[in-house]
Structures are given as C-alpha cells and as structure tokens.
Amino acid sequence: MSASAADTSASKTSSFDSALVVAGITVGVFSAIWLIMRNRATLRKVFQPRVELAPEYRRPEPLPKGLVPFWQAVFKTPAASIIAANGPDAYCFLRFLKVLGLHMLVPYFFLTFAICIPILAASPTAGQTGLNILTFGNVAPNEQVRHVAHFLVAVILMSWTLFLIWHEYNHYIEIRPAWLTSAQHLALARAGTMLITGLPDQYNSAASLKELAGTVAGLVGNGNGTATPRLSTASEGTGVNPTNGGTSPPPGDSAGDIRQVWFTKNVEDVEKVWEERDNEVLRLEGGVAKLQKLALKNTRKGETPEKKGTFDAEQGTEDPTPRYVLDEKRPTWKQGLLSLIGKKMTLDTSPTYIAEHDAKHEEMGKKDYAEGNTAFIRFGSQAEAHNFARRVPSVDKKLRLTVDTGIEVVPEEMQWSNASMNPYQREVRTLVSWSLTIGLIIIWAIPVAFVGAVSNADTLCANSSPALGIIEGVLPPILLAVSFMLLPVVLRLWIRLQGDVRKSDIELKLSPDSGSYNLGQTASSAPTLLARSLPGASIFFLTYILTATFSSAAKSYSRAIPVVTYALHGILGGNTPRKWFMSSGKLQSFAWATTWPTMFLIICVTIVYSVIQPIITLLSLVAFILLYAAYKYRLYWCADQPDMLETGGLFHTKALRTVFVSLYLEGICLAGLFFLSTNESGGRTPTGLACGALMVSYKSPFYTCRC
Length: 707
What we know:
Largest sheet: 4 strands, antiparallel
Shape: globular
Distance between the termini: 51 Å
Helix content: 55-70%
Radius of gyration: 30 Å
C-alpha cells in the first residue's frame, strides 16, 4: 500500500531531520578528535607536518595552541603565502571557495531568507507541509502574483553571480602572468621549455625545428606579437612576484634562440626490460626485509639454527644467514600477479635476474632507435617558448592539422607511453574513449537509479518510521558520494587512453568530465526518481549537503584518518625501509581533478535551487565556511602539492565556466516553473507567463557569451 502525499511530505521532512542529526553528530565527533589530539607533541607530524617536513624556505610558522588563536592564524594567513607554499592551483581553489562560496552565498542567504521564505510561508498557501512549506510550489493558486518576488530575487542573484565571475576572470589574468614572470619561476628550466607532439616527418630534426622557430620569430617581429611580454606587477611585493618591477626582464629572460632539442624515441622494448628489472628489485627488497624480520624473530625467541644445533659451521660459507634462518624457511616469491603466479624466485636467483637485465638494458641502450614524433625544445627565454607554442600551428597547414603544443613542461609529468603515438592513433583512441564514457553513463545510471529508489522509499510505505527516515536521509547521499568517488578512477584510465602526453592535461580533462557527469547523473535522476516535482527534489540535495559535505569538511580539518594511520604506522608503514620512509616522510597532496568536481556540484545545486528552496543557501553557506577553513588549514600546514602537476590555475577557469553553466540551468528551471504556474481554475497565470518570458529574455544574452 503506497503512502499518501501528506505521508510522503512528512517522511521527506523526517529524512532531512535524520540527515541533520547524523551530520551534527559526525561534525561533533570529528571536532572532538581534533580538540583532544591537535596539541600533542607526538602528533605534530599529523596536524602540522609542513612545519617539520617541508623544505626550510617553505615551512610555515607553527600554529598557536589556543583554540581561538589557532583559527585566527588560519583565517589571517595571506593568500600569497598559499601560492608560495603550494602554487597557484592551491591558491585558486581556496579563492573559489572564498569568492564563489562565501562572498556569493552571503547575499543569496540574506535575500532568499528575507524575501522568499516569508512569501512562501505566509497564508494562504498551497497546503504543503514539512520542509515543502518553503518551496517554490507552496504559493496558493490565487496568489501567483507572489512569484514576482521570486523573479526579482533570481535576477538580482544571477546578476551578482555574473559580476563575481567577471571579477574572478580579471583577477585570474593578473595572478597567472604574475606567477609566470616571477623571478622564482623564471629561474626554473620549465619556464623556457615547451613540448610539441604530432610532428610530421619533415620537421623531425633539430635543424628543421630551428628553421621553424626562425619563421615563427619572423611572424612575431613583423608585428603579429611581442617578443618579450611586459612583466606583470599585479602581485608585486607578494609571494607571487616579490621582486619584479615590470621595467625589464629578469636575468635569463633575454632574447635568444633554441638552446636544445630532445626527441622521444620508440623504445618500448627497452621500457619493458627496465620495468621487469625495476619490479624485481622491489620484490627482492621485500624478500630481504622479510628475511631480516624472520632472523630477528628467531633470535629473540632463541630458535635460531645455531642455538638449536642444526647449523653446520663447517660449511665454509661467508653468508651468515644460515646461522639464523633455515634454508627451507628463506623467503621465495613469484614474478606474476601479486607474487602468486609466474616464475618462482629466491634470494639467490633474483640478483642474477637483475644483473642479467642490467646487462641487457645497457646493451640495448647502445642501439640507435627510431625517433618518435614528440620533441622537447628549450628556448633562451620564456617569451620565445610561449610564442613558439602559440604560433607554430599557424605556420604550416600540416602543423595545424597534426601538432599539439604545451608550455611549462617537466619530464616528471610526462606520460611516456603516449609520447610516440601518431595523431591518427590519438583520434581513434579518443573516439574509443568517448564511446566507453557514454557506455559508462548508461551503465552508471543503474546504481544512481537505485540511490533514487532508496531516497523515495517512503512512497512504497503506508507508515513512516524513524528508521525509514534515516535510510532515506543518510544512505542515498552516502551511496551517491561513494559512486562519485569510484567514477574518476575509471575516467582517468579512459582519458589516458586518448593519448595525452602530459599528466596535468589528463587531470584537466578529468575535472570537467567528473563534474559534468556528477551534475548530469544527479540532475537527470532527481526530478524523476527522487520526487514528483523539481521543488520536492530539493530535499535530496539538502540531505546530500548535510551528509556528504559537512562530514567531509569536519573529517578534513580533524585529521582523523591521518591520526589513525599514524597510530598504525608500524603495521601500515610497509615491509621495507624504502616504503617506511616514503610513508613517514611524504606529505599528503590533493588530486585537483577529483577535488574540484564536488565543489562544482554543490555550487551548481545551490544556484539552481536558491530560489526554489531557500533553505539550501543557509546549508551551503555553512558548508563552505567549514570547507574553506579546512582546506586553508590543510593546504598551508599539511599538504604539499607536486610541482610537476602545477597548471598555474587552469582548473579555476573550468570552475568558473561551470558556475556560468549553473546560471543556464537555473534560468531554464525557473522559466519552466513560471510557465507551469496555474491558477485556481487550472489555467496558466499571467504573472507566471510574464515572469517566464522575462526570464527567457534575461537569459538569452547568456547564450552569446563564452567563458
């Protein structure tokens, strides 16, 4: 027997209440862990690891012990310090949380609570109950003129958001050049190094590339560009650009030509030999460590062969191992999957295998291998490298069709397996990758539909209960968050399949894919599976913000998981000295491609539902306060972002485009709701039609804009 509409509304409110209680308990527990553990001297490497483990010139000041001084220090830390510590990507992420989270949502909260909520709650209403009292659909049929207030609030908030997007783009085009032209950055080899892939055979030599560079330099010198860009003074005197005054290039940025050219080579067989050798070295390390542990264990227990009298001292061997471990107890392993299948190796045969591969690798290195179609070019100045990368496709039609360029390249970020791939292989692989992605969207709809069914379980039950409220309010957001955590793992493999040669490019492609996928799956399933109407579906997103975002922020600043990992380091630290050192001396880092999409989703949902369900603005504002505090603390005192994946803030521009897309969605949803507004006789209302038409007119110029 299915539930009535009133029962369903009550159950939805119960779901929200359950999610609110669970979120409060979770935040309380994590905060208690943080309060109890943070000042312990033995846990300083957990709560302030950069103070001890970061390079001397990048170490922050220790945080105060007091509760209020602690957070004062976090919030008062200047933004330029974040750039100096972890680069523009970290700075732009925090900037997004601060501006598009806090600065944007404060007016959202005040306007919707001051105008929309009183209008929705005032009698007469449409008879909604529970949280649905505060939704767009609770306006009585004979009071549809009230929707004018929703329209005006929406227009004001959209305009405010557009202003912030414009402001952030302007800020970005100041910060990025300031970072690129800072003295610290120009001193790096990457500043004057660029990458070019898909080279035709006629350009596959250093001489032809130098000739091509001369052609490009001629284009620049003829007025089509500037040889040396003006140094930005936007952040002069800060951690971004502390010394440049913008009057002359710093040392090493003077005009020059190509200094060096490196071509990739097709050496798959060499890579295979080296990989086999490297894997065996790691297995041998594990075997030696296991042998040492076994010898120590036997010594402590007095069970060594020497103590038991089973050791033959007259064997004449110099190896002391038989004194402590019987030959039949010595570690062995196999070379296959998880050391369970394949050729059996021992401590005696493994060094021989490694030596054979060393000799084989050295012999193969003497051969002359065919060059690939990818080249690294180091110029005498950053300006020349950037101009060449930007203009080389316009020199020759063949180059325009096949080549791709990149700037600020370092060897550590290269995906070497893709370096020698020709352009046609990349096209085919890209087609295959997109086909797999579309298939994944179809398949992934099954678990998302299951989440929707769980969140709508009340419609199948005649009687609601607290247990049902917990299931509906807590379980679906958790399941959805888990599914979105697993998704990037698959998408990253398929994007790598496309043939991108830089890991940073793979991450940049993954970020919008994950964000768009999350948004698409959630937005497409919510109206149909989570509720009978768009306003009612907002309760699912309220519970999602409560369950996923609040707990995630609290877990982040509490450092609960690192505390547990540190306590169990003796077990989880690894079975070799190398693994132990890497786990104890390595700072954590963020994968921006999977960190940004969650923020995309929250911002998008908040914008779309800000007028439809005003409560979401309050929850999102609190969520972003927690997130901003947590990430600022972690990025300056805990995390260390690898320089090789630094993009100079390119993720930020993708995030701003996502916010712009959210305004499209909000306009479409509101226009549809206005057009569907009905009066007491069931007909369309003049107010709704007028507001819908005006909303379409207001949104129309957006479609001619490109962010």
